Amino acid sequence: YKRVTTKSLIDMKAKGEKISMLTAYDYTMAKIVDTAGVDVILVGDSASNVMAGHETTLPITLDQMIYHASSVVRAAERALVVVDLPFGSYQSDSKEALRSAIRVMKESGGHAVKLEGGKEIKESIKKILQAGIPVMGHLGLTPQSIYKFGTYTVRAKEEAEAEKLIEDAQLLEKLGCFALVLEKIPAKLAQRVAESISIPVIGIGAGGGVDGQVLVLHDMVGMTHEFSPRFLRRYMNLFEDMTKAIGQYAADVKSKDFPNANEQY
Ligand code: KIV
Ligand code: NA
Protein backbone atom coordinates (compact mmCIF):
# COMPACT_ATOMS: atom_id res chain seq x y z
CA TYR A 1 0.00 0.00 0.00
CA LYS A 2 1.04 3.51 -0.67
CA ARG A 3 0.68 5.63 2.47
CA VAL A 4 -2.02 8.29 2.46
CA THR A 5 -0.47 11.69 3.17
CA THR A 6 -1.81 15.15 3.94
CA LYS A 7 -0.91 15.98 0.36
CA SER A 8 -2.91 13.06 -1.06
CA LEU A 9 -5.99 14.27 0.86
CA ILE A 10 -5.70 17.72 -0.71
CA ASP A 11 -5.31 16.05 -4.14
CA MET A 12 -8.43 13.92 -3.46
CA LYS A 13 -10.45 17.08 -2.85
CA ALA A 14 -9.10 18.68 -6.03
CA LYS A 15 -10.15 15.55 -7.98
CA GLY A 16 -13.56 15.36 -6.29
CA GLU A 17 -12.73 12.01 -4.66
CA LYS A 18 -14.42 11.73 -1.24
CA ILE A 19 -12.27 10.98 1.81
CA SER A 20 -13.19 8.25 4.31
CA MET A 21 -12.16 8.61 7.94
CA LEU A 22 -12.97 6.51 11.02
CA THR A 23 -11.77 6.52 14.60
CA ALA A 24 -9.72 3.74 16.20
CA TYR A 25 -8.03 3.58 19.57
CA ASP A 26 -6.22 0.23 19.60
CA TYR A 27 -4.09 -2.05 17.46
CA THR A 28 -6.64 -4.73 16.57
CA MET A 29 -9.41 -2.36 15.49
CA ALA A 30 -6.97 -0.09 13.65
CA LYS A 31 -5.70 -3.16 11.74
CA ILE A 32 -9.25 -3.86 10.54
CA VAL A 33 -9.93 -0.22 9.62
CA ASP A 34 -6.63 0.04 7.74
CA THR A 35 -7.16 -3.27 5.92
CA ALA A 36 -10.64 -2.14 4.87
CA GLY A 37 -9.07 0.80 3.05
CA VAL A 38 -10.19 3.79 5.12
CA ASP A 39 -8.04 6.80 4.18
CA VAL A 40 -7.63 8.44 7.58
CA ILE A 41 -7.67 6.91 11.07
CA LEU A 42 -8.53 9.39 13.78
CA VAL A 43 -7.32 8.60 17.27
CA GLY A 44 -10.14 10.71 18.66
CA ASP A 45 -10.46 11.94 22.19
CA SER A 46 -13.83 10.18 21.92
CA ALA A 47 -11.65 7.42 23.43
CA SER A 48 -12.61 9.14 26.67
CA ASN A 49 -16.23 8.04 26.10
CA VAL A 50 -15.80 4.86 24.08
CA MET A 51 -12.73 3.33 25.75
CA ALA A 52 -12.84 4.75 29.28
CA GLY A 53 -16.58 5.26 29.83
CA HIS A 54 -16.41 8.93 30.76
CA GLU A 55 -19.43 11.12 30.08
CA THR A 56 -17.38 13.73 28.20
CA THR A 57 -14.07 13.99 26.35
CA LEU A 58 -12.60 16.28 29.00
CA PRO A 59 -10.94 13.77 31.37
CA ILE A 60 -8.67 11.96 28.90
CA THR A 61 -5.00 12.89 29.32
CA LEU A 62 -2.18 13.47 26.86
CA ASP A 63 -0.41 10.33 28.14
CA GLN A 64 -3.54 8.27 27.53
CA MET A 65 -3.96 9.70 24.01
CA ILE A 66 -0.33 8.84 23.27
CA TYR A 67 -0.91 5.26 24.47
CA HIS A 68 -3.94 4.87 22.16
CA ALA A 69 -2.15 6.55 19.26
CA SER A 70 0.98 4.41 19.49
CA SER A 71 -1.16 1.25 19.34
CA VAL A 72 -2.96 2.55 16.23
CA VAL A 73 0.28 3.61 14.53
CA ARG A 74 1.66 0.07 14.88
CA ALA A 75 -1.36 -1.21 12.92
CA ALA A 76 -1.74 1.38 10.16
CA GLU A 77 0.16 0.55 6.99
CA ARG A 78 -1.80 2.72 4.58
CA ALA A 79 -3.98 5.17 6.50
CA LEU A 80 -2.88 8.59 7.65
CA VAL A 81 -3.06 8.65 11.46
CA VAL A 82 -4.39 11.86 13.01
CA VAL A 83 -4.32 12.27 16.80
CA ASP A 84 -6.58 14.55 18.86
CA LEU A 85 -4.84 16.87 21.30
CA PRO A 86 -6.95 16.41 24.44
CA PHE A 87 -8.59 19.10 26.53
CA GLY A 88 -6.06 20.97 28.65
CA SER A 89 -3.04 20.12 26.52
CA TYR A 90 -3.12 23.15 24.19
CA GLN A 91 -5.45 25.87 25.49
CA SER A 92 -3.25 27.76 27.97
CA ASP A 93 -0.64 29.04 25.53
CA SER A 94 1.02 28.24 22.23
CA LYS A 95 4.21 26.90 23.82
CA GLU A 96 2.26 24.33 25.77
CA ALA A 97 0.35 23.45 22.60
CA LEU A 98 3.60 22.90 20.70
CA ARG A 99 5.04 20.81 23.53
CA SER A 100 1.93 18.60 23.49
CA ALA A 101 1.99 18.21 19.72
CA ILE A 102 5.70 17.32 19.80
CA ARG A 103 5.06 14.67 22.46
CA VAL A 104 2.34 13.11 20.28
CA MET A 105 4.60 13.03 17.23
CA LYS A 106 7.68 11.70 19.06
CA GLU A 107 6.06 9.25 21.44
CA SER A 108 3.23 7.82 19.32
CA GLY A 109 4.54 8.15 15.77
CA GLY A 110 1.24 9.70 14.61
CA HIS A 111 1.28 11.74 11.42
CA ALA A 112 -0.76 14.83 12.40
CA VAL A 113 -2.69 16.40 15.27
CA LYS A 114 -6.24 17.76 15.52
CA LEU A 115 -7.28 20.69 17.70
CA GLU A 116 -10.76 22.08 18.40
CA GLY A 117 -11.40 25.77 17.68
CA GLY A 118 -10.66 28.68 15.36
CA LYS A 119 -9.45 32.19 16.10
CA GLU A 120 -9.08 31.52 19.86
CA ILE A 121 -6.28 29.01 19.25
CA LYS A 122 -4.71 30.72 16.23
CA GLU A 123 -1.30 31.18 17.89
CA SER A 124 -1.13 27.55 18.96
CA ILE A 125 -1.97 26.30 15.47
CA LYS A 126 0.67 28.62 13.97
CA LYS A 127 3.34 27.44 16.37
CA ILE A 128 2.62 23.74 15.76
CA LEU A 129 2.62 24.25 11.99
CA GLN A 130 5.92 26.15 12.19
CA ALA A 131 7.46 23.07 13.78
CA GLY A 132 6.46 21.06 10.70
CA ILE A 133 3.60 19.20 12.35
CA PRO A 134 0.46 18.94 10.17
CA VAL A 135 -2.71 20.26 11.83
CA MET A 136 -6.32 19.29 11.20
CA GLY A 137 -8.90 21.80 12.45
CA HIS A 138 -12.24 21.03 14.09
CA LEU A 139 -15.19 23.48 14.09
CA GLY A 140 -18.93 23.37 14.70
CA LEU A 141 -19.80 21.13 17.62
CA THR A 142 -16.59 20.99 19.64
CA PRO A 143 -17.14 18.49 22.48
CA GLN A 144 -14.25 19.83 24.58
CA SER A 145 -16.34 23.00 25.17
CA ILE A 146 -19.52 21.11 26.07
CA TYR A 147 -19.86 22.93 29.40
CA LYS A 148 -19.85 26.30 27.60
CA PHE A 149 -22.81 25.22 25.43
CA GLY A 150 -24.55 22.75 27.73
CA THR A 151 -25.88 20.50 24.95
CA TYR A 152 -24.72 18.41 21.99
CA THR A 153 -27.36 19.88 19.62
CA VAL A 154 -26.74 21.15 16.08
CA ARG A 155 -24.43 24.19 15.93
CA ALA A 156 -24.33 27.35 13.79
CA LYS A 157 -28.03 27.50 12.99
CA GLU A 158 -27.97 31.24 13.79
CA GLU A 159 -26.51 33.64 11.24
CA ALA A 160 -23.88 35.11 13.62
CA GLU A 161 -22.48 31.70 14.58
CA ALA A 162 -22.53 30.62 10.91
CA GLU A 163 -20.56 33.72 9.88
CA LYS A 164 -17.96 33.08 12.62
CA LEU A 165 -17.66 29.47 11.48
CA ILE A 166 -16.99 30.51 7.88
CA GLU A 167 -14.37 33.03 9.03
CA ASP A 168 -12.72 30.42 11.25
CA ALA A 169 -12.64 27.87 8.39
CA GLN A 170 -10.98 30.40 6.09
CA LEU A 171 -8.52 31.31 8.85
CA LEU A 172 -7.58 27.65 9.36
CA GLU A 173 -6.91 27.32 5.64
CA LYS A 174 -4.83 30.52 5.63
CA LEU A 175 -2.77 29.35 8.61
CA GLY A 176 -1.91 26.18 6.72
CA CYS A 177 -4.10 23.42 8.21
CA PHE A 178 -4.29 20.48 5.78
CA ALA A 179 -7.95 19.66 6.49
CA LEU A 180 -10.74 20.36 8.89
CA VAL A 181 -13.58 18.52 10.58
CA LEU A 182 -17.05 20.08 10.73
CA GLU A 183 -19.24 18.47 13.37
CA LYS A 184 -23.03 18.64 13.53
CA ILE A 185 -23.90 21.78 11.57
CA PRO A 186 -26.53 22.38 8.84
CA ALA A 187 -25.65 20.61 5.56
CA LYS A 188 -26.07 23.81 3.54
CA LEU A 189 -23.59 25.72 5.68
CA ALA A 190 -21.10 22.83 5.60
CA GLN A 191 -21.28 22.72 1.81
CA ARG A 192 -20.76 26.48 1.64
CA VAL A 193 -17.64 26.14 3.80
CA ALA A 194 -16.30 23.24 1.70
CA GLU A 195 -16.82 25.24 -1.50
CA SER A 196 -15.13 28.34 -0.06
CA ILE A 197 -11.80 26.69 0.85
CA SER A 198 -9.40 24.41 -1.00
CA ILE A 199 -8.43 22.15 1.93
CA PRO A 200 -10.64 19.08 2.51
CA VAL A 201 -13.61 19.40 4.85
CA ILE A 202 -14.49 16.14 6.63
CA GLY A 203 -18.00 16.10 8.04
CA ILE A 204 -19.77 14.29 10.86
CA GLY A 205 -23.44 15.16 10.88
CA ALA A 206 -22.66 17.84 8.31
CA GLY A 207 -24.33 16.36 5.21
CA GLY A 208 -23.01 15.11 1.87
CA GLY A 209 -21.83 18.40 0.40
CA VAL A 210 -18.42 18.19 2.07
CA ASP A 211 -15.23 16.42 0.96
CA GLY A 212 -15.31 13.41 3.24
CA GLN A 213 -17.01 11.72 6.18
CA VAL A 214 -15.96 10.58 9.65
CA LEU A 215 -17.77 8.42 12.20
CA VAL A 216 -16.84 6.92 15.52
CA LEU A 217 -15.98 3.27 14.76
CA HIS A 218 -17.77 1.79 17.76
CA ASP A 219 -20.94 3.66 16.80
CA MET A 220 -20.96 2.60 13.13
CA VAL A 221 -20.44 -1.08 13.96
CA GLY A 222 -23.10 -0.85 16.67
CA MET A 223 -20.86 -1.77 19.59
CA THR A 224 -22.34 1.22 21.37
CA HIS A 225 -26.12 1.15 21.36
CA GLU A 226 -27.41 3.96 23.53
CA PHE A 227 -26.21 6.72 21.19
CA SER A 228 -28.43 7.18 18.11
CA PRO A 229 -28.14 10.62 16.50
CA ARG A 230 -29.73 11.09 13.07
CA PHE A 231 -26.36 11.29 11.29
CA LEU A 232 -25.20 7.88 12.51
CA ARG A 233 -25.55 5.01 10.03
CA ARG A 234 -25.13 1.68 11.81
CA TYR A 235 -23.57 -0.96 9.56
CA MET A 236 -23.70 -3.76 12.14
CA ASN A 237 -25.29 -4.48 15.49
CA LEU A 238 -22.25 -5.81 17.28
CA PHE A 239 -23.60 -5.03 20.75
CA GLU A 240 -26.42 -7.54 20.13
CA ASP A 241 -24.31 -10.07 18.25
CA MET A 242 -21.49 -10.04 20.77
CA THR A 243 -23.82 -10.18 23.76
CA LYS A 244 -25.46 -13.24 22.22
CA ALA A 245 -22.15 -14.95 21.42
CA ILE A 246 -20.69 -14.23 24.85
CA GLY A 247 -23.90 -15.36 26.54
CA GLN A 248 -23.66 -18.60 24.56
CA TYR A 249 -20.06 -19.10 25.69
CA ALA A 250 -21.01 -18.55 29.33
CA ALA A 251 -23.88 -21.06 28.96
CA ASP A 252 -21.58 -23.60 27.25
CA VAL A 253 -19.12 -23.40 30.13
CA LYS A 254 -21.89 -23.91 32.68
CA SER A 255 -23.36 -26.87 30.76
CA LYS A 256 -19.88 -28.37 30.22
CA ASP A 257 -20.47 -28.26 26.44
CA PHE A 258 -17.21 -26.27 26.18
CA PRO A 259 -14.54 -27.50 25.81
CA ASN A 260 -15.38 -30.70 23.92
CA ALA A 261 -13.07 -33.63 23.14
CA ASN A 262 -11.49 -31.85 20.14
CA GLU A 263 -10.88 -28.65 22.02
CA GLN A 264 -8.27 -29.99 24.41
CA TYR A 265 -4.82 -31.59 24.43
O1 KIV B 1 -12.96 12.38 18.91
C1 KIV B 1 -13.58 12.11 17.85
O2 KIV B 1 -14.02 10.97 17.62
C2 KIV B 1 -13.78 13.19 16.88
C3 KIV B 1 -14.63 12.92 15.68
C4 KIV B 1 -16.05 12.75 16.06
C5 KIV B 1 -14.46 13.95 14.63
O3 KIV B 1 -13.25 14.26 17.07
NA1 NA C 1 -12.39 14.57 19.12
From TrEMBL:
Residues where Mg(2+) binds? 45, 84, 116
What EC number is given for this enzyme?
A: 2.1.2.11
Under which pathway is this protein filed? Cofactor biosynthesis; (R)-pantothenate biosynthesis; (R)-pantoate from 3-methyl-2-oxobutanoate: step 1/2
Q: Which Gene3D superfamilies match?
A: Phosphoenolpyruvate-binding domains
Catalytic site:
183
Please name the InterPro entries in this protein's record: Pantoate_hydroxy_MeTrfase, Pyrv/PenolPyrv_kinase-like_dom, Pyrv_kinase-like_dom_sf
Q: Which reaction does it catalyse?
A: (6R)-5,10-methylene-5,6,7,8-tetrahydrofolate + 3-methyl-2-oxobutanoate + H2O = 2-dehydropantoate + (6S)-5,6,7,8-tetrahydrofolate
Per the annotation, which location comes first and is thus the protein's main one?
Answer: cytoplasm
Q: Which cofactor does it need?
A: Mg(2+)
Compartments, as annotated in UniProt: Cytoplasm
- If you read the UniProt record, what top EC class would you report for this enzyme, in one word? transferase
Q: Name one GO biological process term.
A: pantothenate biosynthetic process
SUPFAM superfamilies xrefs: Phosphoenolpyruvate/pyruvate domain (SSF51621)
Q: Does the keyword Methyltransferase apply?
A: yes
Q: Which family does it belong to?
A: Belongs to the PanB family.
Q: What is this protein called?
A: 3-methyl-2-oxobutanoate hydroxymethyltransferase
